[in-house]
Amino acid sequence: ASRPFHPDDTQIEIRGHVVGGPEPTLIAGPCSVETREGLLEIAHAIKRSGAHMLRGGAFKPRSSPYSFQGLGEEGLKYLAEAREETGLAIVSEVMEPGLVPLVAEYVDVLQIGARNMQNFPLLKAVGRTGKPVLLKRGFSNTIEEWLMSAEYIMAEGNPNVILCERGIRTFETYTRNTLDLNAVPVVKHLSHLPVLVDPSHGVGHARYVMDMARAGIAAGAHGVIVEVHKDPTQAWSDGNQTITLETFDELARQVRAIHQVM
Ligand code: PEP
Ligand code: MN
């Protein structure tokens, strides 16, 4: 993942869009895949706003075992149907090595969640697929550890790693996490891999998402991943930090505008 081994920036083409290319990458969707109809409505709306990829968890890493755990394969089927209808690429999390072949069958990008950033057998398993991987930074992990996790994937022969800063734990409690924007220029200096920011998990409150999406792009991020829903108050997970379809439309416009002057 280190610059000296690969001086040029990595570009990853996914369904016609180049991550790390001239356009900022826009990924949006619900925290969890819920109903088929609800997902299709979100997919069509974000497509109209210029998104490149649809996100949605089918296997969810919930803090409580009693919270909704995701629809599993049924959710992956809804995501694949949304791709069929809209042409959006699909991003979804995989939590265990044994499920990598199943999830890889349905998605364009395998997401490694913050809680699994150092699950080394899982990193090796997604490395072996050769598919693009969105590697989130663990909320208590250093940049060095994050880049070493990217290395685990790449050492299996998979160069298609997209880094994602999603906030780290600090003493602050007004926000869910602290989006570490320092990490963006630092990893761009140390590594050739593209880096996105996730302001939704980074702040944990919908009202701050737009500001930190703009800030992430201004810091040099290659794009954003955000949680959106038709009615965030009804979302099955992470509703507090989920923005509306209308807000996403405006966020996409502002992200493109800022990226243009970078
Ligand atoms: C998510 O993207 O819904 C998610 C669980 O993210 P993280 O792993 O960053 O908490
Ligand atoms: Mn979430």
TrEMBL record:
GO terms for molecular function: aldehyde-lyase activity; transferase activity. Keywords: Transferase. Residues 18-257 form the DAHP synthetase I/KDSA domain. The keyword Electron transport does not apply. GO terms for biological process: aromatic amino acid family biosynthetic process. The keyword ATP-binding does not apply. This is 3-deoxy-D-arabinoheptulosonate-7-phosphate synthase. The chain holds residues 72 to 333 of 343 of the full protein.
